[in-house]
Amino acid sequence: MFEKLKNETKVIVTGCQRSGTRIASKMIAYDLGLPYIDELEYNIHSESDLLKILEKHDRFVLHAPNWVSMRLIPFAPIMQSIFVVYVSRSPKDICRSMERINWAPKARTVLERLGVLNPEPWHMYALPTMIQMRWKHSIKPRLTKYLGIEYTDLKNHIMWIDKEDRKEFVWNQTKPL
Predict the structure, then answer these.
(1) Mean pLDDT over residues 96-110, rounded?
(2) Is residue 146 a contact partner of residue 140, using CB atoms and an 8 Å limit?
(3) pLDDT digit string (tens) for 71-88?
């Protein structure tokens, strides 16, 4: 499924929250035989922690929060050796996923910080739409080593679990307990 990555040894997987970045990261690590580093294994709010990981490891698939895609460019020297995978998913499905795990209040807070006071339910689509548009128009054109994938394409992978079988999963779960 990830043939384009077969010669890569350093891969960052990022995208909007709830877009499938964690499972995509695990699938890529599985296919390439690379160590998987989850965003929970480092301080996801620290650029210096991220840089330490990028410099310390020779081989990895790093599951990274969305802000990394906004700040990849300042890491330009080290980014020359890193392949970026960006996972996209329909804003409607992202919002459904956020509601399922009760992240909708968190998203409303973000929207309010962006100036959307008293956000209506339909405003929720704005957040993933803005994030994915920023990737498409501002970040992707500056990268030379990247791959964009759609969440729906992951269903063809051996590690995929059907929606019905994962409806009780918690926010960071990718396989049955």
Answers:
(1) 80
(2) yes
(3) 766 566 777 788 999 999
User: Whole-angstrom Cα distance, residue 81 to residue 7?
Assistant: 12
Contacts of 167 by beta carbon, 8 Å cutoff, 6+ apart? 100
The residue count of the chain comes to 177
Q: What CA–CA distance (Å, rounded) separates 62 from 172? A: 15
Residues 6+ apart with CB under 8 A from 34: 9, 11, 28, 59, 60, 61
Please classify residue 63 by burial: count the beta carbons closer than 10 Å to its beta carbon, then call 0-12 exposed, 13-18 middle and 19+ buried: buried
How far apart, in whole angstroms, are the C-alpha atoms of residue 47 and residue 137? 23
Q: Which amino acid is at 126?
A: A
- 155: three-class secondary structure by DSSP: helix
Task: Pick the more confident residue, 96 or 58.
Answer: 58
Residue 42 burial (C-beta neighbours within 10 Å; 0-12, 13-18, 19+): middle
pLDDT in tens, 108-132: 777 777 777 777 776 777 778 888 8
- Which stretches does DSSP call E strand in the chain? 10-15, 36-37, 60-63, 83-88, 146-150
Residue 19 buriedness (CB in 10 A; 0-12 / 13-18 / 19+): buried
